[in-house]
Specification:
single chain, 210 residues, alpha+beta, Jelly Rolls, three-stranded antiparallel beta sheet, 26% strand, DNA-binding transcription factor activity, RmlC-like_jellyroll, Transcriptional regulator
């Protein structure tokens, strides 16, 4: 729920309009507050003066509470209005996944200008794509077109120096230990300016490594 809709809800409350705002999922939020405090419907009924049947109907979205009912809820439960209007928190579940990549055991993906080593490559449906890259290119002319892919990218220089070319900015020198975060749908290209091939660590969101 956006701040704008919260303000809209507050205006409706102030005016005492009926029924109370439906999109707030107020019943679900009330039940969440009740369970978090280990209250029964009878407990809430005694605190607010509202019948258990009324509370049950509110929690199951069978009725939309009026302004006077909302006042009884906030007063009886000793909560303020924003607490009641806050969208219910969704339970989070973790699958507990992990994927170890030993040194030099990543999935190799060589290109004419880079040699990528994909890390954590055994996990499917990742939100991030981490990879270590050996930068072999020595000139921007070695690229026939910009490298670009959906999402965002974080890059850190692990060894050597590189020149980062980007579509909308002047070329940028990055030395060992430097890092940069950028939109990766913007054209970009890396060139090693060291005597040896430079090595960088990159983490991309979405899209494929180019």
């Amino acid at each position: 729920m956006t701040a704008t809709s919260e303000e809209h809800a507050a205006l409706r409350i102030a005016s005492g309009s009926k029924p109370f705002v439906e999109p707030l999922r107020l019943g679900e939020r009330l039940k969440q507050i009740r369970l978090a405090n280990q209250w029964t419907l009878e407990d809430v009924s005694q605190r607010t003066g509202l019948a258990r049947s009324t509370l049950s109907k509110i929690e199951n979205d069978q009725v939309s509470p009026s302004f006077s009912v909302v006042q009884k809820l906030t007063t009886g439960l000793n909560i303020d209005l924003p607490q009641l209007l806050t969208p219910p928190k969704r339970e989070r579940y973790t699958m507990g996944r992990r994927d170890l990549t030993r040194k030099g055991k990543g999935q190799l993906h060589p290109t004419p200008t880079y040699e990528h080593e994909l890390l954590g490559h055994q996990l499917a449906q990742k939100r991030m794509i981490p990879f270590k890259t050996i930068v072999r290119a020595r000139s921007f002319d070695e690229y026939h077109q910009w490298v670009r892919h959906d999402g965002e990218e974080f890059l850190m220089v692990l060894h050597g120096d590189v020149m980062l070319y980007t579509e909308f900015y002047a070329p940028l020198v990055l030395e060992e230990g430097d890092s940069i975060y950028f939109d990766s749908d913007m054209g970009h290209a890396l060139v090693s300016t060291s005597q040896d091939d430079a090595i960088v660590l990159s983490v991309c969101t979405r899209g494929d490594v180019a």
